[in-house]
Amino acid sequence: APVPAPAPVPTPAPVKEVDPSPEEEGVYVTAEVLTVSVPAKVKLTGIAPPDFAAEPEVFNAFVDLMKKSLSSIMEPPEGADIVITAINGVPVSSNRRLDDASEGEPETLVIDFDIVMVVNCDGECDDATVAAELMSDLEGANKKLEEATSSSSSAFADVLAENAAMDPRLDNTNIDFADITADPYVAPTAESIQSAVTDAPATQTMSDGSTNTLDSDIGAASTLSFSLAVLGTVVAIFATLL
């Protein structure tokens, strides 16, 4: 008997490869820039700030003197900046309250300042990694200020006197720099640096070319939203009981 021919095997249809659309891939962060402000402070005795109400220009020169002197001593990393934030607890950005800076404990000066650094990351920044790098980068600058404010050193007062002599706005101030002493400087802790990184405003560049700005107030706004939500829930519960 004749042998039947084998049945033909059907050829499978080619599978079309579909490129994922941007929506399927999702937009992601390609680069991020953080502006980190690490808070610090130094205390001096034997010196007081000028009266802002009577001599606003001299007061501003005094603030500039503190900034320049701290920068001269610390020599912060390249790209970093020293920003004076408060004098004797009064924010320098608050003109209405700066009169209070010359009050309080006589012949005492507490300078609050930020060490401001800009951090560039490929992709999204990892807060822990950035904080560890900044801790290392600031080690030398903090060490120099610790040495300048040690009990055996007059370096801080010497730098203040040198810089003041170069600013004509301070010519008529009655500051005896030889009487100035500094409390030992305490460098920012790893925890404070980590907190500064976490709270830092950020600018993100996205894969679609757009930018996204994350402000440090986001955390506060989220807390406020949560508090309002809780308050609404409590009010609703009480309403059901009435």
Distance between the termini: 97 Å
Write down the overall mean pLDDT: 82
Number of strands: 7
**SS-based class:** alpha+beta
Output the number of helix runs: 7
Oligomeric form: single chain
Low-confidence parts, pLDDT < 50 over ≥5 residues?
A: 218-231, 233-238
Strand-residue fraction?
A: 15-25%
Q: Could you tell me the radius of gyration in angstroms?
A: 30 Å
Sheet with most strands: 7 strands, antiparallel
- Choose one word for the global shape: elongated
Q: In sequence order, what are the helices and strands, one letter per element? A: HEHEEEHHHEHEEH
The proportion of residues forming helix, as a percent range, comes to 25-40%
Give an overview of the whole structure:
It is a single chain. This protein has 242 residues and is of the alpha+beta class. Helix content is 36%, strand content 21%. It has seven helices and seven strands. Strands 1, 2, 3, 4, 5, 6 and 7 form a seven-stranded antiparallel sheet that branches. A hairpin with a 4-residue loop joins β6 and β7. α2 packs across α5 (155-164) and α3 (127-137) packs across α6. The radius of gyration is 30 Å and the shape is elongated. The N and C termini lie far apart (97 Å). Mean pLDDT is 82; it is low at 218-231 and 233-238.
